[in-house]
Write a structure and sequence with these properties.
Helices cover 36% and strands 18% of the residues. The protein has twelve helices and 16 strands. The strands form four sheets. It has a six-stranded parallel beta sheet, with helices on both faces. Strands 11-10-7-12-13-14 form a six-stranded parallel beta sheet, with helices on both faces. A two-stranded antiparallel sheet has the order 8-9. β15 and β16 form a beta hairpin. It is globular.
Length: 351
């Protein structure tokens, strides 16, 4: 059996979808699973144990970049593959049309406001539905049990070796704990929303507290687009943090986080990556709703003000974040000591 999964963007969203592919692999161990994904988000699937092939989509699916000729060309590529079934984990009507134009007989996908009209099996969703819960609903509609499947990212051996070299170069394990902080996020080809970033000065307070009160060695990570937040955080700190801005690939960042004791960051791909490698992680929500975009696990915490019934409040205070950090560090110790590992976690599953 040949199965296609479509989810073009973004890095964090594609990582959330790996729980679906884990459930699919468990239900169909002999199936060929192909994941069609945009070029920008493809690193989220590198070395994924549940996917046989990553099918690049280029910029297809990027908002405000609609090229009919490219969509038709991609549909023709799909038609030549003769897939038996397609799962569309995206609300876009353009994504729903692709397997229809490719004449894939079984087309199961999300249907928000009738935009999934081209599916043979439509899974009704609401704008307030949790992303991971939606993918699980698609699985159940297809007779696939998604129970106990979680987001997964597997760094390669090269990724882990690069992370170990960074740890040695910058003495990241010199403290009692290694903490990775990502104060940026909110920038990808489909959207720019820096309102998702918690104030850099509050990240600085958390970092100083970790160093002074918890004996941590703090490293700050991010790409060029995160540079303003990283610089502002470091200016506001009274202690010294290690900056690894621009020093890691996505996979190397995953390995670095997996080898640490805790991750702290905004609602971003980095936060979802931390969940994917099963690292203790605190995700801070300021402009996006945790009940929609959060992925709760025993080793993760979503920190926010407000509630689903009342909506988001002001950016959460520092005390809420430090409390969540202490709670997760205590859980980590109770379950076997430091979470610091030389290798990426080896576990089944995926969001």
């Amino acid at each position: 059996m040949s199965v296609l999964v479509i989810k073009p963007l973004a890095l964090g969203d594609v990582l959330r979808a790996t729980g679906f592919t884990a459930a699919l692999r468990r239900a169909l161990p002999d199936a060929g699973i192909t994941f069609a994904v945009g070029d920008y988000a493809a690193p989220a699937l590198t070395n994924n144990p549940d996917i046989d092939e990553i099918m690049p989509m280029g910029m297809l699916g990027t908002p405000r970049r609609y090229d009919g000729a490219q969509y038709l060309a991609f549909a023709r590529r799909l038609r030549k593959r003769h897939f038996d079934a397609a799962f569309v984990l995206d609300r876009s009507p353009a994504m729903a049309l692709l397997p229809y134009l490719a004449r894939i007989p079984h087309r199961i996908g999300l249907d928000s406001r009738q935009r999934g009209f081209a599916h043979t099996t439509r899974v009704s969703v609401d704008m307030e539905d949790n992303e991971v819960a939606m993918y699980r609903r698609v699985a159940r509609m297809a007779g696939v049990d998604p129970t106990d499947t979680v987001c997964v990212f597997r760094p390669t051996h090269d990724d882990m070796a690069a992370a170990r070299r960074l740890a040695e170069e910058f003495a990241l394990d010199a403290g009692l704990r290694r903490v990775v902080i990502a104060p940026g996020g909110g920038v990808n080809p489909g959207a720019v929303d820096v309102s998702k970033r918690w104030p850099a000065e509050r990240f600085a307070e958390v970092a100083d507290w970790l160093i002074q009160c918890r004996g941590a060695r703090v490293c700050v990570v991010g790409t060029a687009s995160d540079s303003p937040s990283i610089a502002a955080m470091q200016r506001a700190m009274t202690e010294q943090a290690v900056s690894l801005e621009g020093r890691t690939t996505f996979g190397q960042l995953g390995a670095l986080i997996a080898g640490g004791d805790i991750f702290v960051g905004n609602d971003s791909a980095s936060a979802q990556l931390a969940i994917g490698v099963d690292a203790p992680s605190v995700t801070i929500f300021t402009a996006t709703e945790p009940w929609i975009y959060g992925t709760e696990t025993p080793r993760s915490a979503s920190v926010f003000s407000g509630s689903k019934s009342r909506g988001l409040g002001d950016p959460p205070p520092v005390a809420m974040v430090t409390s969540a950090i202490d709670r997760l560090l205590a859980v980590s110790v109770d379950s076997g000591g430091s979470s610091r590992r030389s290798d990426a976690p080896d576990r089944p599953g995926a969001p």
